[in-house]
Every structure is written in structure tokens, then in C-alpha cells.
Design a protein that fits this description.
The chain is mostly helical. The chain has one domain. The chain is elongated and about 55 Å long. The two termini are about 25 Å apart. The N terminus is likely disordered.
Length: about 160
């Protein structure tokens, strides 16, 4: 049984290879790496909202030159990919090893809420509409990415020999 002071032991570092030497320089690098990972997430979210800020007339003009842009399936595919990449970046930023159900659900919820916000934001952009099917594609894209990364992590973990 743990005593009152032992109950709050430090959890192992999620980046053991980056801090194995324990020097201040390595710790600073780890902090910089973590910041960079979250900056990538922020940059991707800004890009998503920047693309949503493009007026409908500009999209129509571009679509007239490239007919593939006018198909609904292509638009849904783009939503799927946008949010699959967002989920991957969020997983990368959190250092998700090994995957947990709670974190997977939290990240899926975060991606879904961002997708809903993105769809709602397009209501105020001239010439754009808020189609709920876009939000579904966003959420499904994030969910598929999270599930795929989990499968890859589990396969790698099961194929890696245990260290003595």
C-alpha cells in the first residue's frame, strides 16, 4: 500500500529517447519539440479556417476552370482529408503512445467540434453555406485517422520484441 506521499509519483516521460541524458539542453529541446508540434496543429486549424473564408464566388470561378472541384464527392473527400490530417497532428502533438480510449475519444470530440465550428463559420462567409454533411465528413475523417493510427501503433507494439 502506498503512503500519502507516495501516491503522487511522477509518471514516466512520454519522450524517453529525447530526455535520456537528463541535461537541461535535452529538456529544452523536448519543450521546443512539444511547442513545435502544437504550433503545427494551430497552423493547420488556421489553414482550415482560412480555406473556409474563401468567398463562394471565388470558389465558383476556380471550379469553372477545374470541373472536378464542382463535384460534391470531391468536396466531401477534401473535408475527410482535412480532418484526418488534423487528427494525426493532434495525436502527434499529444505524444500518444500507446493509445488510450479516453484520449482517442477526446481527440475525436475536439476534431468534431472544430468541424462544427468550421461549418457554422461558413454561414457568415459570402456565398458559402453550412452543410451538415461536411461536418459528418470532418468527424468521420478524424475518426478513421485515429483508428488507423491506433492499429499501426498496436501492430508495431506487438511486433517489437520486449526488452529484458
Amino acid at each position: 500500500m502506498l503512503g500519502p506521499h507516495e501516491a503522487h509519483r511522477e509518471l514516466p516521460d512520454p519522450f524517453p529517447l529525447l530526455v535520456s541524458e537528463g541535461t537541461a539542453q535535452v529538456c529544452a529541446t523536448t519543450k521546443a519539440t512539444r511547442r513545435l508540434r502544437w504550433l503545427l496543429v494551430a497552423a493547420w486549424v488556421l489553414l482550415i479556417f482560412a480555406l473556409s473564408s474563401v468567398p463562394g464566388s471565388t470558389i465558383t470561378s476556380a471550379a469553372s476552370r477545374y470541373s472536378v472541384l464542382t463535384t460534391e464527392g470531391f468536396a466531401l473527400f477534401l473535408h475527410f482529408v482535412e480532418y484526418a490530417i488534423l487528427a494525426g497532428l493532434l495525436l502527434f502533438a499529444t505524444g500518444w503512445r500507446p493509445p488510450t480510449v479516453a484520449l482517442a475519444l477526446a481527440l475525436l470530440l475536439a476534431c468534431s467540434l472544430l468541424g462544427a465550428g468550421d461549418v457554422a463559420y461558413r454561414l457568415v462567409v459570402p456565398g458559402r453555406d453550412a452543410d451538415p454533411i461536411d461536418w459528418v465528413a470532418d468527424t468521420v475523417g478524424a475518426g478513421v485517422a485515429i483508428a488507423a493510427i491506433e492499429v499501426v501503433c498496436r501492430r508495431r507494439a506487438s511486433s517489437t520484441p520486449a526488452t529484458p
